[in-house]
Amino acid sequence: MILKIVSIFRLVLHIFLNKKRFYKISCACLMVFVVSSCTRKVQLERDEYRLNSFEFKGNKEISTEELELLIPPTQKPNRRILYLPVTPYVSFYNLGKTFYNSAKITERLEKWQNRLDNLPNPVLYDAKIEKKRKKYLSKVNVYQDRLDTKENWWMKNIGEAPAIITESAIKRTSGTINKYLYNKGFFDSIVKYQIDSANTNKRIKISYLIDEKRAYLIDTIRYEMTDRKVDSLLKSKVKEKLLLRLDRVDFNNIDAEKLRIEALLKENGYFNFIAKSYIGVEIDTTDYIRRDYRVNLTVTIRNPNQKEQHEQFTLESINFISADASTENNLNIDTTNIELNSIRYTFIGKKFPTKILDKKILIRPNQLFKASLVNETNRQLYGLDQFAFANVKFTQLPDNQLRADIIAPTNPKYTTAYNFDVNNINNILGGGASVSLRARNLLSILETTELGFRANLEGQPGLDSTTQRSRELGANLALNIPKIIFSNKISNLLSLKNPRTQLAVSFNNSKQRLFERQVFRLTGNYSWQRSKYETIVISPFDINLINTPFKSASFEQVLLDNPNLKVLYDPQFVSSINGTYVFNNQVQGKNIKAKYIRFFVESGGTTLNFFPDKNQIKFIDQIFPLDTIKRAYFRFVKLNVDFRKYIPINKRDSWAYRLNLGVAHPYGQNQAMPFEKNFFIGGPNSIRAWRPRTLGPGSALGTTIKNRFSQQPGDILLETSIEYRKYMFRFIGNWNAGFFIDAGNVWKWYQIDSKIDQANFDWTRFYKEIAVGTGAGIRLDLDYFVGRFDWGVKVFDPIKPTGERFVLDNLKLKRSNEYYPVFHFAIGYPF
């Protein structure tokens, strides 16, 4: 599927770059759109109209954006192309009608309904069966909806139904708008509508005429109740109330205040309290004109029938019940009962360590019912990744007691995952595949063990004018433990912060015609969530052993001619301690205002201080040749700050910004940075007008090997981007357009003999060496996968002499041209 999409877009690019063909096809497509959209008439019944447009007039305090949300989708005009009187999606809809077949849909509906009905109903939770049930039910709902709406997949996703409206529907919408204004405190508002003829074929324009009048304000707020305990509790939290004097009357705020009271009482033992049943609000508008349109609010909290007060409940007992779905048909199920800290654990099949579970369960016998502790218990248990879900069920007992049963069916012990991706590097289409096996609770400490394998092919520059494929094979083994190990005190403090300890080992082998490179890595990480949006990761050790066992003769000669490059291919021992702080309040699948901040700090070579000889390690000496020992060790410090902000324009469109700053400083005998620890710029997730890692440093022409650009490392990074993301249409997934401007560069701390006052960072000229690129792209968003196609062109090129760096006018659509657009295919958004 992905390869087909890539092929289609390469064809589109080829057409785009051939001007004559592009103009011809564009004109032809435009003619088809115009003819198909304008000539086809829609059959209208009596009192039906084609909606051309609508507008709001007279609203002052309530924004037009708020009012637009009240208009049903069926009462909005059809989408157009560039505001032209062309509605191609209606033509697509009519095309879909020609192959709508209710008989086939009914046949498929019956097929999936039969599969759903034939699924077994096991006593115990079975993850596989429930997954099938969810899938079959989804299919049933899809085909039932197609029968009910008389629309097939094409009509729903590609086409758009003609915007047909009746006057009765317009009246209902006017009433909805008037009711919304009333709920916002405009009790005397008047909403009318006006229908104007837009053109022929019964097209109309609707104007909603809004007279808000004066808004009513809250004068006094009174809480009435006969339950003294509830009264005392509310008075202790009076600063948290959401209804304030002189605020506009807003029924949304009134409902929010009811929910606040309900949450407060449920946090203090009132298990049965429900706002809808016991809270009423009255608005007294008597003499409101004399009081300058101010009204009195009375919030009444009623007692249960035939009772003088609300009941507070205490937990009598806690039972944890975990059932292994794989043992459902086993007659000899091993059931284990354990009691720890007044909690009774029952394990049906698979057993788990109760000492760790005990720290995740926050409710206890003889404790007053608290909704927040119940919710947090569910969250903590689910976060262990050992259980399909966690849910607390309560049973009422005499004397206001509750029995809590924590139901937690287990996840499968072994699961597998597969992943495929496609890349385009150096104009060579490549890709990769990975497979991973996850095992749960093998060591009986609620851990997960992951074993993964990966294979990858990508384009790399050769020594001549050709490019070649690089093969990469890798394997990794990781152990994830849901606690901070080696420190019980810290582990207890962070037990509710989703703590994780990860120990991982990996081996990677990359091979091409020039050389073969091997990397062995050993890491240890501590991570926890400081809050809902904040994550902290500390790595006390990150050890890399890097070797290049094979170099071709031609490549060996290149390294001899480039001593600085040779260091990168000598045997290396790279160790570091690093820490990361991440704030991210994005919500996947939602276009909301959000930001992302990442701070990363790293100290390299720190582990050398733990050995007798602080400049080398004996067993490393035995692995690597003695003549490269001094070059094998690295000491450095590194800091990186990545800030991103997302600002929605409307429900689907948004602006995205990024500022990425970094600085790295090598020290010690080596005075060099490990190759992988350098900063690089350019590529699909960076400055997109340049190929990956080819920009910089500064205004210097990047290092080349036989006139071929190699990767350009830097010690100082400055990178920024702004991107406009626009929704276009839905076909298979959501198709979005992106328009972007990228800017930035990398520099060296120090002077380079062959690049004096070019590659090094200098306050007096660095701003003149910032590269700028712009471009556009297309993105296919499948929710679980985003395929991205970006074209970037250079605007300012720092390697040109001062005064000649604006190069946008040099753009030519010929591959031989230096400023030919750069194409990138990537997975996911750039930031």
Model description:
The chain folds into 4 domains: 2-100 and 152-211, Ubiquitin-like (UB roll) (Roll); 217-301, Ubiquitin-like (UB roll) (Roll), CATH 3.10.20.310; 314-407, membrane protein fhac (Ubiquitin-like (UB roll)); 451-827, Beta Barrel (Porin). The radius of gyration is 33 Å and the shape is globular. It is built from 18 helices and 30 strands. Helix content is 23%, strand content 37%. The strands form 5 sheets. The chain has a 16-stranded antiparallel beta sheet. Strands 9-10-8-12-11 form a 5-stranded mixed beta sheet, covered by helices on one side. Strands 2-1-4-3 form a 4-stranded mixed beta sheet, covered by helices on one side.
Mean pLDDT, all residues: 85
Level-1 CATH class name of the largest domain:
Mainly Beta
Our count of domains comes out at: 4
Structural class: alpha+beta
Radius of gyration: 33 Å
What is the topological layout?
Layout: H1 2-17, H2 19-38, E1 48-57, H3 64-68, H4 88-98, H5 102-117, H6 127-149, H7 153-157, E2 164-166, H8 167-183, E3 190-199, E4 203-211, E5 217-225, H9 228-236, H10 251-266, H11 275-278, E6 279-284, E7 294-301, E8 314-323, E9 335-340, E10 343-348, H12 354-360, H13 371-382, E11 391-397, E12 401-407, E13 414-425, E14 428-440, E15 448-461, E16 467-481, H14 488-493, E17 500-511, E18 515-529, E19 534-551, H15 553-561, H16 563-566, E20 572-584, E21 594-604, H17 618-623, H18 629-632, E22 635-648, E23 654-667, E24 704-705, E25 708-709, E26 716-731, E27 733-747, E28 771-781, E29 786-796, E30 822-827
Parallel strand pairs: 1-4, 5-7, 8-10, 8-12
Antiparallel strand pairs: 1-2, 3-4, 6-7, 9-10, 11-12, 13-14, 14-15, 15-16, 16-17, 17-18, 18-19, 19-20, 20-21, 21-22, 22-23, 23-26, 24-25, 26-27, 27-28, 28-29, 29-30
Helix pairs in contact: 2-4, 5-6
